[in-house]
Each structure stands twice: as C-alpha cells, then as structure tokens.
Specification:
With 239 residues, the protein is mainly beta. Helices cover 9% and strands 33% of the residues. The chain has 3 domains: 96 residues, no CATH class; 39 residues, no CATH class; 94 residues, Immunoglobulin-like (Sandwich), CATH 2.60.40.
C-alpha cells in the first residue's frame, strides 16, 4: 500500500491478507486501514445490507471463526521520495514478502565444492573434480530477468500440459512499455496465454520479438501478461 503527495510518500508492506483501505479525512490527511484478521461469528446472515434476500449459506453460529487467540503479524513501513514507481518502493515490498532463500548446491564441479563432497559424502581423497559429474548451473546465473523493473514477475511454473515454461508478469505503471524477458536458456517460441494456459490473441500485448535467450514485447499500462515459453532443446535451432 503506497500513498504520496507528489514529493514524498510512504509504503506499507504487509504479509497475509491483501485487504486495505485508504480513508480521506476531513482535514486532508489520509488514514490507511489494513485488515489483519477476517473474523465472523455466523456462517451466514440474512439481514446484511449487501445480502437483502437470502443468506449465502446455513444460518448458524461459528464461534471458532472469530479466530480468538494469539496471532503474529508482519508489516514493514518505508518512506521515500515521489511515488512508488520512481522510488522503487515496490521492490522493497517484494523483498519483504518474498525473502531470499539460499542453499548449498550438491553438484558443482569446482574446487570449492569438491571438499563438500569429500566431507559430506565420505568419498576418497584425491578424486579429480570431473568425477563429480557436470555442473547443474554455472556458479553465477540468473534464471529469469525482466526489464524494466516495474514489470513485476508474479508467477513462474511449468505448463500443465507440456514442458513449456509459464511466466506471468504485470505492468505496475500506467504507461505503455517495451519489456524484455531474458532466460538462462535459448527460447524457441513464445505464446500469449490466459490463466487456463490456453493460447489467446491479446491486442494489448504485441510485437513479440525473439532473439536467442530473450524476447521483447509491447504491453499497455496496468496490464497482466501470461507467456508460455518453449525452450530450445537443440541449441542449433536458436533463432
């Protein structure tokens, strides 16, 4: 949640329910209300303003749905100049909600990784690095890179029906943008799909140009895009 007056702003990052309200007060101030818990005492009621005719389910008490007890909430507040795009406070929010995870790779054919194998696997000393097989990944790599950085990744998964890669992103700005998506492997083809992973024609996402391991595209402001990306299996077919 981010508000600003054109010169300075504040961004609140919250984990959990993405429900909030920005309330304009009579004195001109803005109050930000963030939902921490959504609790109910009854499963359905028939006399609600938003439900004039019939209840949405059985009319019986649900006391445990009041969520009584101890709860822990995680929020972060950051101040910045200008709006959330210019200040890149959205990146801080992403880093807060999706903290970096690390792991020690088991197979890397480097001198630094060989002692790990000797220690943890109990292998004999003096084995050449080639004994441990090929690297899974280079020592430094980026699986996916999207530019400009206000095009924000929201999903990355294997396709449901084949081995293609599904990447979903959204344009957090209000302006039409030329985007670039770069992978660590060469790209054979790119299709625009819907949430059901079915190919669609979308006039708001155009001009897809593939070159080696990246492709460019045009996308309108405030738009969600889902790409189905086919990776090159034979490097000689790179286009």
């Amino acid at each position: 949640i981010s508000i600003n007056d054109g010169k300075a702003g504040i961004t609140i990052c919250n984990r959990g329910l993405p429900e909030y309200e920005a309330i304009q007060e009579e004195n001109g101030n803005v109050t930000i209300a963030i939902t921490l818990l959504r609790c109910i005492g009854w499963l359905a009621l028939s006399y609600m303003i938003t439900r004039e005719k019939e209840p949405a389910g059985p009319d019986f008490a649900a006391p445990e749905a009041q969520c009584l007890g101890n709860h822990t909430f995680h929020l972060s507040i950051t101040t910045h100049n200008q709006d959330f795009l210019s200040s890149k406070s959205y990146k801080i929010a992403q880093e807060f909600n999706i903290p970096l995870k690390t792991f020690n790779p088991e197979v890397m054919r480097t001198a630094l990784r060989v002692p790990d194998h000797i220690f943890f696997k109990g292998l004999p000393l003096l084995l050449p690095p080639d004994y441990f097989g090929p690297k899974f990944l280079p020592e430094k790599a980026s699986f996916v890179r999207i530019e400009p950085n206000y095009l924000i990744l929201s999903a990355c998964k294997k396709a449901e029906e084949d081995s293609a890669l599904i990447i979903r992103l959204y344009n957090s700005s209000q302006s039409p943008t030329k985007g670039t998506l770069k992978l660590h492997q060469a790209i054979q083809d790119v299709k625009i799909v819907n949430l059901d992973e079915q190919e669609v024609n979308d006039a708001q996402i155009t001009d897809i140009q593939i070159k080696n391991n990246q492709f460019t595209f045009q996308i309108i402001g405030a738009k969600i895009a889902t790409f189905k990306i086919f990776i090159v299996r034979n490097p000689s077919n790179v286009r």
